[in-house]
Amino acid sequence: MPVFTYRGTNRTGASVAGEMTASSKTELQSLLRRQQITPTKMSEKGKEFNLPTFGGGVNAKELAVFTRQFSVMIDAGLPLVQCLEILSSQQENKTFQKVLTGTRSAVEGGSTLSAAMKQYPKVFDALYSNMVEAGETGGILDTILQRLSTYIEKNVKLQRAVKSAMVYPIGVLTIAGGVIILLLWKVVPVFATLFAGMGVDLPLPTKIVIAASHFVGSIFGLLLVVGAVAIIIGLKVWHGTPQGRFVIDTVILKLPVLGILMRKIAVGRFTRTLGTLIASGVPILEGLDITAKTSGNAVVERALNRVRKSLEEGKSLTEPLRESGVFPGMVTQMIAVGEQTGAMDAMLQKIADFYEDEVDAAVKDLLTALEPIMIVFLGTVVGGVVISMYLPLFTLIGKLASAH
Fold first, then answer.
1. Is 11's pLDDT higher than 80?
2. With the C-alpha atoms ordered 107, 112, 113, 116, is the resulting torsion angle positive or negative?
3. Do the first three CATH levels of 60-153 and 159-404 match, i.e. the same topology?
4. Angle 244-248-250 (CA atoms, 0-180°, nearest 5)?
5. H helical segments located in 76-140
6. Are the C-beta atoms of 164 and 367 separated by less than 8 Å?
7. Are strands 37-44 and 3-10 parallel, antiparallel or unpaired?
8. Is 2 helix (H, G, I), strand (E, B) or coil?
9. Which of 50, 178, 316, 376 is the most buried (most CB within 10 A)?
10. DSSP code string of 25-42
11. Residue from 238, 245, 311, 247 nearest 274 by CA
12. pLDDT attached to residue 231
C-alpha cells in the first residue's frame, strides 16, 4: 500500500501534518475524517513533485455564476454528484474545472461537500466552506447557495466601486507624468539649444522648465525614477507584513475623501459578511472570526478580533464595536437594536444595503468631482511647459517688430 503525506486542520482549527498508509486518496480522506481532520493537501510519498501550472485563477464572477447555477440545480432536486459533474463539464476555466472534478470525486468517495471544498481554500475560502457546512447540517443547502451567490455578487460590486474610484485618477496622473517626462526629455532640449544659439534673455518660467529638463536628462533623473520604483516596491513588501499592513490601512482610513469611502466599503463588507453568516446558521463567534479574516482591512480585522474576544468574555456585541472607534454611531446603534430584538441578521443586511448605496453615490460624486480637476491639472501642467517654451520666441518677435 502506498504511503501518503498530508496537511490539514483539526476540529479546533489547528494545523496538522503527518503520514498515513491508504490504498487511495479517497480512502485517506475517509480515514482523516474519522480523526476529525480536514485535509488541505494530500500527496503520495515520493511523488510530491508536480509540474507548475501557469495562469488560470478563479475570479469572483465565475464563482458567483457557479454558485447560482449550483443552487438552482439543488433546488430542482438533482443529486449532488450529478450537479458537480454537469457544472464541471461546462466550465470553461480549466483550473476551476479541475477543482470541481476533484470536489466531485471527493464527494463520490464519501466526503461531505464542505470537507471536499476545504481541500481548495484558494477557490472556496473559509466563508464559503463554512456556509456550505451550515447548509448541509441544516438541510438548506440550496438556500445557503443562493445567499452565497448574492453575497459574492454584491462583493464584486463593491470591488468594482473601489476600482472605479482609483483607476481614473491613477490613469490620468500616469498619462500626465508620461507626457511631462517626454516633453522635458525630448522636446525642451531642442528649444534650449535654439535659445542658446540666439542669445535671448530667458524669462523665469522658461529657466525653470529648462532646469527641470536638464535634471530629467541627467543621472539624477534616472536615480529619481529608480528611487520612486524602489519606494513603491518597498511599500508593497511592507504592506505584506502585519505591522506594515496595519499602519498603511490606518493612514488610508484617515485620508480626507478616500478614507471616508474606504470606511464605508469596510462597514458594508463587514455587515454583509456577518449578516450572511448568521442568517445561514454559522455561530456568531465563528462568523466574527471569518468576517475579520475577509474584511480586507487590518484596522477592521483588529477591531473585530477584539469584539470576538469581548463576546467570549460574556459582553454584548455593541459595546466593543462602539469602543473600537472604527464603526459609525449609526451602525452600532442599529446592531444594538438587532441584538435586543433577536433580528441581528436582518439588521446587518439592512446596514449593508444602506452602506452599499452610500458607496455607489460616493463613487459617482468622487468621479464627477475628479474629472474636471484632473482635466484642469493636466491642461495647466502640459500647457505651462509648452507656453514657457514659446515665451522667449514671443519676446524675440516683439524685438524684431520694434526694430523695423
1. no
2. negative
3. yes
4. 115
5. 80-89, 94-108, 113-117, 126-138
6. yes
7. antiparallel
8. coil
9. 316
10. HHHHHHHHHHTTEEEEEE
11. 311
12. 93
State pLDDT tens for residues 320-361. 788 777 788 888 888 888 888 888 888 998 998 898 888 888
CATH superfamily entry for domain 159-404: Type II secretion system (T2SS), domain F (1.20.81.30)
CATH class of 60-153: mainly alpha
* Residue 103 to residue 88: CA distance in whole angstroms: 10
Instruction: Return d(Cα 80, Cα 232) in angstroms, integer.
Output: 47
Lowest mean pLDDT among 41-45, 233-237, 284-288: 41-45
| 192 in Cβ contact with 207 (< 8 Å) | no
Which helix or strand (DSSP H or E) is residue 140 part of? none
248 closest CA partner among 265, 262, 269, 229: 262
Strand partners, 3: 21
Quote the cell numbers at residue 174: 500616469
Q: Domain residue spans in the chain?
A: 3-44, 60-153, 159-404
Cell numbers at 170, concatenated: 491613477
pLDDT of 47 higher than 60: no
166-191: burial string, b at 16+ Cβ within 10 Å, e else: eeebeebeeebeeebeebbeeebeeb
| DSSP three-state, residue 111 | coil
The helix, strand and coil proportions of the chain, stated in percent and rounded to the nearest 5, come to: 75, 5, 20
Predicted local confidence at residue 371, as pLDDT:
80
Q: How many CB atoms lie within 10 A of CB 42?
A: 18
In degrees and rounded to multiples of 5, residue 203 shows phi and psi of -70, 165
